[in-house]
Amino acid sequence: MTTAALGRSYRLLWSAAVCSRLGDALRTPALALLAATLTRDPRAVAAVTVAGQLPPLLLGLLGGVYADRWDRRRTMAVVDGARAVVVAALAWLVATGQAGITTLAAAALLLALLGTLFDASAFALLPAVVRPAALPRANAHLQAGTTVAGGFVGAPLAGVLFATTAAFPFTVDALTFALAAALVLAIPRRSCASGPGETPENGRITGRNRKIGGIGVWREGWEGVRWVWGDRGLRGLALASAGSNLAISGLAAVLVLYALEVLRVPAAAYGLFSAGVIAGGLVGALLAGRLAARFGTLPALRGVLLGQTLALTGFALARHPLTGGLALAGLAAGTTIWNSLWAAYGQRHVPPGLLGRVGAAQRTLGLAAAPVGAALAGFAGRAYGLAPVGWAAVTVFALVTVAAWVTLRDDGGGSPPGGLEAGQPDGEPLPGRRERGDHAEQQVP
User: Fold this and answer.
1) Vertex 21: Cα angle to 20 and 26 (nearest 5)
2) How far is CA 303 from CA 20, 238, 292, 328, 443, in A?
3) Which range scores top for mean pLDDT: 204-208, 263-267, 415-419?
4) Which of 27, 158, 215, 292 can bridge 173 by disulfide, Cβ–Cβ 3.0-4.6 Å?
């Protein structure tokens, strides 16, 4: 099934997501390169990276609340328009020599903050433009498109544009945000709403789950957390994501050193070694829909964890760039499959009034383990060497896999809190229901 078969509204949403990802892939390395030209203090350079990582972790629940309160299509367009203005202003400051470390950190913080709202709205909008049976393939196509745009196009191009002039990557990024906003606005309103409490005119929830005004915003955010924790399937998947991210983030934190010292990857070939991760992710995106159709969502997710455990075992055993790179590509393929099917599962088990909040809760739970894994890997690598970090990741994944095979037994999910039906495990949704995609993804190594 191609993007054409999924309909015009999906093609527009897909194009907007790919366009935004291309801009992100240009801006992220450009920010790091620019920070390194301004100072050689590692604390200052790291501060720019940390500023871009904090909002999803600290304020992600708020993004979910407002994704449920506001018109999602319009919210995405406004957010991308605002991001275009922010990056354009940054490009001007860079071009005129007025951008310092504080400016870069502030821009990274603001863009990440806006991104939490965009992500929650985007994943809540997807099921409105795609029929339930096509959700696994729709998510897989999104993963494939963003992988190509970010890994094969944006990342290599960022260095070339930065070498031309430091402001160039940011200028192009601003244009991609503006184009993405226009693409979202081109999605017909009538295709962005289906279900009680939503109409083509407003596209937002007006039912019992929606609160008016600013009072109780955090309470609304916690409703998403309670829903996740009260649903057996969503809770199990959230915990599996957190556990796998603990291992993946730890490995990613020391990957460059592991590749150079353990796998003996030549420094000049590290870019090629890293490209294996991108290629593996693309293969995973192409396989995700087929696996879901053949085995069902939860059985496929359990199989993915088992496959990733085997891939990590091969990585820990490897002492050559080729075998290590192939194992890492297998891990990345599993990550992409996990993210695609994980989203499709959530799209079938969450009622419309909680789409944004549950998705934000899933992402926050998944991200919470990432910095812990990175910190533990750094200390362990310093104390015991790099090779044990790979085996520690294998151990964590093995434990997560065993737990998933024991607990994730029913593709129907479980009974959500409040006694509401969770939704049909396969086929069409329950009458009067619309489903959405959650995005507590595994991190890419």
Assistant:
1) 100
2) 31, 16, 11, 17, 18
3) 263-267
4) 27
Task: Give me the mean pLDDT over the 406-426 stretch.
Answer: 44
Helix spans in 318-420 (H): 321-347, 355-384, 387-407
Q: Measured between alpha carbons, how far is 382 from 370 in angstroms, rounded to an integer?
A: 19
What is the pLDDT at residue 443?
A: 62
Q: From CA 267, how far away is CA 247, in angstroms rounded?
A: 24
Tell me how far CA of residue 180 lies from CA of 23, 26, 109, in angstroms: 10, 15, 20
- Quickly count: other Cβ atoms within 10 Å of residue 199's Cβ: 15
- Backbone φ, ψ for residue 409 (5° rounding): -105, -25
Helices (H) and strands (E) in the chain, counts: 15, 0
DSSP 99: -
- pTM value is 0.71
DSSP alpha helix (H) spans, 96-134: 101-129
* 121-134 pLDDT, tens digit each: 887 888 888 888 88
Cβ neighbourhood burial of 343 (10 Å; 0-12, 13-18, 19+): buried
For residue 426, pLDDT beyond 70: no
CB 198, CB 205: distance < 8 Å: yes
Q: Which of 165-179, 262-276, 401-415 has the lowest mean pLDDT?
A: 401-415
Residue 359 · residue 435 · CB < 8 Å? no
Q: What is the mean pLDDT of residues 36-45?
A: 77
Tokens 């892939």 sit on residue: 25
Residue 430 identity (one-letter amino acid): L
Query: Where is 157: in which H helix or E strand?
Result: helix 155-164
Sign (positive or negative) of CA dihedral 364, 305, 284, 389: positive
In whole angstroms, give the CA distance from residue 120 to residue 265. Answer: 38
